[in-house]
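Table S2 (text version). Query chain:
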Amino acid sequence: MARAKATFLFAAAMALQLGAARADEPAAQPVQKMDAALDALISPDAKMSVVKSGFGFTEGITWVEDGGYLLISDMPANVIFKLTPAGEQTLYLDHSGYTGTDVWRHGFMQTNGRDRADPKFEEFPMFGSNGLTMDKQGRLIICTWAGRGIDRIEKDGRRVTLSDNLNGAKFNGTNDVVVKKDGAIYFTDGFGGLRGAQNNPDLGIKFNGVFMWKDGRTTQVISDIVNTNGLSFSPDEKILYANGGRDKYVRAYDVSADDTLKNGRMLFDMSDDKRVGITDGMKVDTAGNIWESGPTGVWVISPEGKHIGTVLVPELVANVEFGDADHKTLYIAARSTVYKIRLNVAGIP
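Corresponding structure-token output:
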């Protein structure tokens, strides 16, 4: 694994949407129950704690079975960190997203949500890696965001690009990624990897979508989501969930035997909630419930599309992951902080 001895950390809170947020202490009672079914998933008195704070903007949080630790993207720092459940942080991969030198041309500009007149106002480019996941061989798959592709870290440490275009048109900002047990890789792409988004002269494909890389070939598998963001499979991998980012909804698709998708339908729409927060990262537990980022924290949505509860988080949530040996700890990547809370149900390994 290529590692760097030093790196800059941009001290700014980031989000994929505007709005101020602070790294406050978790609420004394973070579990907000909407339905009695939530009790089987998380105890009403479950406590949230801070694993580590002080990041720029955390994303792509993923659990590594072999070693028992987390990997997270810090997007403005352009690195992937290794983070233990106890909060011990080390550098895992430098230049995890954009690997060139002209960084001022790449990654959309974001603020920390403060007014420009505020002395604490800060503005940074988002040019590091975004979504992360492990494949079934234990190799790290990286959405490089401003790097505009999907990379894989081989067992010998080599970094290879699996896909960076659709029929010759370059991707613009690879966002989230999941791997099916048969090796098919599904990922989302948007405009966020480019400075100026659609107005950037280097714009590649002209739309957002969900794409599949399989056997060396990239195809588009979802075209009915305008602002694609997060992805997750049902426990049996017969359904792929994809969300609409700032449009705040989750759609479900049946997975065919050849890994293409069909029968797209709306599962859950939270767009009426105008509070700050989007449908960003999500994961599914072994009972099929979706743990989805949204306004105020992590929304728990049943397989039938019912909102049964919310885990309140002090900062805007970017992504979630199940971890620890029993997969019953929910780790939450929220702007500058990684939080955790114990569950009664295990996540999908």
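Notes on Table S2: The domain at 31-342 is CATH 2.120.10.30 (Neuraminidase). The two ends are 24 Å apart (CA to CA).
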